[in-house]
Amino acid sequence: MIMADDKDVLRDVWFGRIPACFTLSPEETTEREAEPYYLLLPRVSYLTLVTDKVKKHFLKVMKAEDVEEMWFEYEGTPLKWHYPIGVLFDLHASNTALPWNVTVRFKNFPERDLLHCTSNSVIEAHFMSCIKEADALKHKGQVINDMQKKDHKQLWMGLQNDKFDQFWAMNRKLMEYPTEEGGFRYIPFRIYQTMSDRPFIQKLFRPVSPEGHTLTLGDLLKELFPAAVCAEDEPKRFQVMIHGIEPLLETPIQWLSEHLSHPDNFLHISIIPAPSD
Amino acid sequence: MPSSLLWAVDVYGRVYSLSTAGQQWEHCRDAHLEFKRVTAVQQCCWSIACDHNIYLYVHASDVPIRYQEETYENQRWNPVDGFSDRLLPSDRWQWSDVTGLKHQPLGDFQLPSENWEWEADWYVDENFGGEPTEKGGWTYAIDFPATYTKDKKWNSCVRRRRWIRYRRYKAQDTWVKIPSEQTVSLPDPYNDITCGGWEITEEPRGCLALWAVSLQGKVWFRCGINHHNPEGSVWEEVSVPGEVVQISCGPGDLVWAVLWEGHLLVREGIGRDCLKGSSWVTVESPSPGVGAVHVAVGVNVVWAVTKDHKVWFRRGVNSHNPCGSGWIGMVGEMVMINVGLNDQVWGIGFEDRAVYFRQGVTASELSGKTWKVVSVPRDSERSHSSASASSLQSAGCFFGGEVRLQSQASVLSDADPDTERAGGEMVPTSEIGDAPKPRIPKVTSDSFISELVSDREGQISRRDVPPAGPSIPEEDHIEKEVEDRASPTQVLSPSQSGGVDPQWSNVDLEEAQTHHASGPGDAAETSSLSSVATYNLALEEPYGPDEHPKWAWVSGGGCLVECHTQLNWFNSSTSTALNSSMQAMSLSITPAQTAAWRKQIFEQLSERSKREMENFMHYEQAIEQSVWVKKGTMQWWRDWKPHKWADVQFALEQFSGAEGNKDGILFIYYTFNDEKKYLHVFINEVTILVPVLNDSKHTFAIYTAERTKQRWPIRLAAPTELEMHDWLALLSVSCCDSKGIQGPPSKQAIWSVTCKGDIFVSEPTKELEASPYPTPCDQMFWRQVGGHLRIIESNSLGVVWGIGYDHTAWVHTGGYGGGFFQGLASSTDNIYTQTDVKSVYIYENQRWNPVTGYTNRGLPTDRYMWSDASGLKECTKNNTKPPSPNWTWVSDWTIDYAVSGGTDREGWQYAADFPASYHGNKTLKDFVRRRRWARKCKLTTTGPWQEVPPIPLSDITILPCGPKSTVEQVPLWAISNKGDVLCRLGVTSLTPGGSSWLHVGTDQPFKSISIGAVHQVWAIAKDGSAFYRGSVSAQNVAGDCWYHIPSPTGQKLKQVSVGRTSVYTVDENGNLWYRHGVTPSYPQGSSWEHISNNVRKVSVGPLDQVWIIADKVQGSHSLSCGTVCRRLGVLPMEPKGHSWDYGIGGGWDHITVRGNAVEAPRIMMPFLTDNSSNQTAAGPLQTSNQPEMNGNPVGC
Asked: Chain A residues with CB inside 8 Å of B625's CB?
């Protein structure tokens, strides 16, 4: 029996798309009514990186003086562009009907909630700093520091142009580790939750216990978010989402880090209340 | 790579082995004695026990050691009785050997030793030179001695028939005593033993040289050891110019010995005709004034140890100069050194008596880099045999002082008191043989469950015994026995051993330390004494329980360590323990792959894609796809004459195709008459990319369907090997993307292998076997899979096996990529290192002249005096390179005696003139002669293949089955490289490697085998005759007997392939034959029908589709040899088809379509085929006499 290869997971993750319907906020001043704009958004990319078309579309119906920096909200919540699109969706809109209805705003930028994003170079800087942070955790930063400038560029261009092969030709070096150690030094991960004001949880966590046991997603959650690990007889209170799926708690955390990390090399885990149906 | 064993003896005489894949010393529990010396080779281990007798341990194998005895029954005709056993007085014996000179009645055949048994009774051989005889097996002649025929004629006056009977060696995986023949004089006990010499000759198979030294310093050579006679036949004394204390024999012709006074002896004159050698040469001790005490030799190395424990390496040693040129002092102080396979070196440290491994020994750096201590624990199982053995030891004890101590010690043992009192007597072998043999799981077995068990044991032992604890289990059984004596009724369990009073050991520890300081020193002074187990029981305990084991002897002659071998011997941390247990399990399938969490992720991801994307595919993509270009410079083999390499610019443009899949165009920009031009190829039209490495250029060939028809690919050369691999990997990914192919090959895949050993795989479409309009096979897309194989076989359940050039068997892991495919073009967790070894041959040619006889001065018209087989190309020993940069030499040039036609003693073959047919003995008419030299080279690569040790194979076949069939156990048959027929047990789609071999007896060696869809097994014997195996079924996997099927008249068959019902064979003259009259009730069929000539190989699939490798195929531009072809017009009622369809080639060696059970859709809309390609309708294969270079880029 030949099962799907782990490589296929990388492709599925990369090519994940969320259908989105962009509508202009009624609070915006327009010259005429704006049609909604439909787009397939790559889960692993960033909102401001892939919405040039959306901007162009709505600018057509607006006066230049009414336009400030574009930002997005979902059901009144401002969407942080510096979280990957898939994370925003999982966190705010899991279990809702598709397409995802995103409201486009050009005024009243919520300075408290969002970072400014004036150009793609801001996204690039954010993306590269994430990769560097992740590699610092995984390999004390040795792999990313050994790369040349053009290699860094290749990672960014791969994401920007949706070039899976180009990106992974370089990214696989970031996913290597010495066999005898059984995994990375620490797993770069972030746990997001809607119920808290904390932006996310991030701590040092090794993939292998001091006794040599492979640690799992369940082990990670037990330490950092015990409420997400429910006993067998309890009703499920939380959903633990990565890329729109709920991996089993016995999934090795190292495998998850290698296969379900976002291009920024972080494993983004969204914890949302379980639907009460 | 299969694991192999390092053997060692500790100072108490216990034998341990350490697997290259293992992490602990396994006690050889079968040894009921204590041993002082072991010498191991891959198939067996010889030893000297403390009773001074020699013992042999033959490793069990799935293929038994069996020997065919034969004798002839002779009869003469007389008018009264007809044929009767009344012969003329001048005639031969009624029962004789084949020559008739030796009287051999059936009753005179005796088993050579008690370790043999008869398989069955005598029976008559009814096969005569590949032809079945009449019942009774008689062959007739006019008179003795004469030519016999199977037909009785009017003048047949005598007849004879051959009786055969098999005997089988039964003493495997156990120590057996080799009886000493010296009954006359006082027994002279053996003191040292060394085994080697297996590289000297191939004939007889498994030939070994065994040398032994007696306590009086005499040297003995054991004659007649070979595969069929593992014990050898007789000891012969070899005279020596002094008293020898130790001897060492390498895998080749090196034998060195150490003299009592510290000089060394080198044996000269060892060759394939004289394993014993002829004379000794003396070599001075490395250090003046300090004599040598120990020597160890390999293929090209000699190591020595002097009395001051210094280690020496001998420079300049090789087959031509066995004495070498000078000594180099090495770092480290050792008591002994042993050289194993690949000239790897082990030693036992003087200070700590630990086993050391010499790291960094390579062919270019034979002296290695550094000593690394082997620190692995010993298994915790207690040895009960060791207790009784301690009394046996006293029996063989030789030295006064020790006898007292040992017999004291033996009182402590719980063995039979009678045996103890018999101190000084030899112990009868029968007792040893009758002793109970505890059964334990063996690490060397290929059942991974037992590996898990033994792994766990190891871990437990480590956990239970803290390193600084008062006792380690290896030592505590002695204390345990003491306790035992004190309270004889007490039954000991492992848990009790922990409760030993620590005072015991503490008291003794002090004593020990004083001895430790002086003991080894004494031993070294008296070198011959040091070789005996000088440590006796009374002194054992002192070696503090927290000390690591003390070793006395180590032998690596059966231990294969290569540069890529990962040894886990040097520290025993938990992470490596985890690794090795993972490795142990991976042969069948990685458990992680079947884990529920993984399945869940795969399932959820595809659900997610469906949920989030399926209904929204009409949405616009957020990121537009753009064109991506990669450029480079290359050389191109010009399409027009004169053909030559031209510099070109090379560019690949990739873009997204209409349906979202990627596509691309390849551009080759060249200049012609100062004008810039280009040639382009659409990536989706490329059918295959073939790497063509040779020693001068890094080239590859690109084929499209059109180029396949022309037999004229685009040939390109990259500036470096690395660039070629980069381009090939990129182009390959690009081609696969354009066709939407990714991931591992499907179960239905068609596999093929080129003559360079490169592996290609093609995904069959439904239309491939459609009738009447199949997809032409030149349109098949082939992608490369890493690895190097000679043969590959598959079936539609996804079981795929291969055989390398060195006959190693490999099983497909389900992965893809490897080799130069990296990153995304390759799977990661199921790619392994693969090695292969093959020989390169050159010929030495000589011409006779009346003055000087044969010389290397030929006629001006003659071929080169050193040439290739054709004589057209000059090939000298110095200028001949390995086939490509991927290969490296691993041996020196040696004369090849295994040439068809036979050779004389120096390897020469004679003929009247070049080129001609050669024969092995010189006649008056011969004026030229030649001999073949061979040199082995080795390739190391990676691929989705895992070795199936240990039996080397020459052919395999796997049951072909329908697309929906479910077979629990997949029948898989194979032929070993010695011609044994084997049946693999435990093969399932989850465990494609299976578990073990079942040997199926035959009366002669076989060379080809094939099993059909309903378990019909056909095979071809070495003599070219066909056999059908009766009664094979799912329940009776091995069947019951062979039926001899006559070959087509005058032809010797070479290969067979059986599909659903069709049976096809290929003979040695390249004819393809179809078996007529095969029905369920008469599966043997009735006659052979000729189908085609120029056929090299055939593969018949589960749909009865017939594919071949054709020898010569003419294309529109060129001719190609080794071409994949498919039979057209094969229908259920017309299994023979009508014509050939030509696919990829030349340079192809093997194809298997036995996985492709994809039946074409029943209802087919007839569509127009490209009728302009008149090849499809071509009749018999055409040949041409104008082969051009491009037709066979891969080479044949």
From this structure: 161-162
Quote the CA–CA distance of A114 and A220 in Å, as a whole number. 29
- CB pair distance less than 8 Å for B616 and A17: yes
Residue in the structure block whose two tokens are 């003046």: B288
Give me B4's structure tokens. Answer: 């192999």
Torsion of CA B901, B903, B908, B910, to 10 degrees: -40
Q: Which helix (H) or strand (E) holds A91?
A: helix A85-93
Helix (H, G, I), strand (E, B) or coil at A149: helix
* Per-residue pLDDT reduced to its tens digit, A85-134: 999 999 999 888 889 999 999 988 999 889 999 888 999 999 999 999 99
Full 3-state SS string of B1056-1103:
EEECCCCEEEEECCCCEEEEECCCCCCCCCCEEEEEECCEEEEEECCC
Tokens of residue B553, six digits: 């002897």
Contact state of A182 with B743 under an 8 Å Cβ cutoff: no
What is the maximal distance between C-alpha atoms in chain A? 67
d(CA B1155, CA B301): 49
Complex ipTM value = 0.92
- Can you spell out the DSSP letters for A96-108? SPSSEEEEEE-SS
Q: Which two structure tokens, joined as six digits, stand for B580?
A: 């090795």
A-B interface: how many C-beta pairs under 8 angstroms?
147
Query: Which secondary-structure segment (H or E) carries A164?
Result: helix A164-174
Q: Rounded to the nearest 10 degrees, what angle do helices B385-395 and B400-411 cross at?
A: 150
Surface-to-core class of residue B1105, CB atoms within 10 Å of its CB (0-12 exposed, 13-18 middle, 19+ buried): buried
- Minimum mean pLDDT range among A53-67, B513-527, B544-558, B771-785: B513-527
**pLDDT-derived band at A277, boundaries 50, 70, 90:** low
Q: Torsions phi, psi of A235, nearest 5?
A: -75, 145
Does B827 have pLDDT greater than 80? no
A47: contact with B, CB 8 A cutoff: no
Answer yes or no: is pLDDT of B573 > 90. no
How would residue B250 be classed by pLDDT, with cut points 50, 70 and 90?
very high
Q: Do A212 and B578 touch (CB under 8 A)?
A: yes
Tell me the pLDDT tens digit for each residue of B750-791: 999 999 899 999 999 888 888 778 889 999 999 999 999 999
